[in-house]
Amino acid sequence: xxxxxxxxxxxxxxxTVLRELARALPGERFLYLxxxxxxxxxxxxxxxxxxxxIEIANYLITRHDIKMLVVACNTASSLALPVLRKIYKIxxxxxxxxxxxxxxxxxxxxxxxxxxxxxxIRSGAYEQALRAAIPAARIDSRPCPLLVALAExxxxxxxxxxxxxxxxxxxxxxxPPDALILGCTHYPVLKGAIREFLGEATVLIxxxxxxxxxxxxxxxxxxxxxxxxxxxxxxxxxxxPERFRSVGELFFGAGMDAVEMVSL
Length: 264
Ligand code: DGL
What we know:
By secondary structure, the chain is an alpha/beta fold. It has helices at 15-24, 46-64, 74-87, 96-104, 118-123, 125-133, 146-153, 159-174, 191-198, 207-222, 241-252; strands at residues 5-9, 29-34, 68-71, 92-93, 111-116, 138-143, 179-183, 203-206, 232-237, 259-261. The protein folds into two domains: 5-94 and 209-261, Rossmann fold, CATH 3.40.50; 96-207, Rossmann fold, CATH 3.40.50.
């Protein structure tokens, strides 16, 4: 099926998810929308994030006829997914279930850590899904909001970033979990620093990688896969395409040609 897969996030972070999608599904067309005018979502209420998510989904469905919606933003996935799934007929893929599925498939899964924005952790969405999937697991979730700004600065190996990681994650180093869910779009770019701090014993679960697997299975099973010759990606933003392009490269791992500004 030639229709694009719609992917949205509050801004540049979801490009880590798009990167994994494009890698796993090279025949697809992807349409990415970064809501840069209203970022961040991580500090906002469920009502506001749900309203923003519905506006974006309406736009992508009515204007661009997407065949599937990937909610790349972990905060929007945690707060708005049930409502989006109720409203729309097309499949809606979030970040929570794919990560939880991966945690549940691990041979060692007694203690699971979750890190994310304040909104994601406050929502309890990961905890609830983990309790249902692995009832015996001990779950430890912690908000790590400053990591978003550090990643956008590009301060990947900077001493300040190591210090902030140490401050947030020291409870995990004292008692390493079997897995740590990186429950925020920005954390994959800090994976190396997180790995260095925590050591090798903990499996780091990346939402983009896990979501790409789920999207692949859904498209294959429904017969909706597109057979193109290399991923085609278009970028839309609600503000400041230039900043999106320059900051976004680190998250996407490649250059972005055209970034179009849209009004929802
Ligand atoms: N995209 C958000 C998330 O994954 C992080 C940035 C924000 O707070 O909007 O939760």
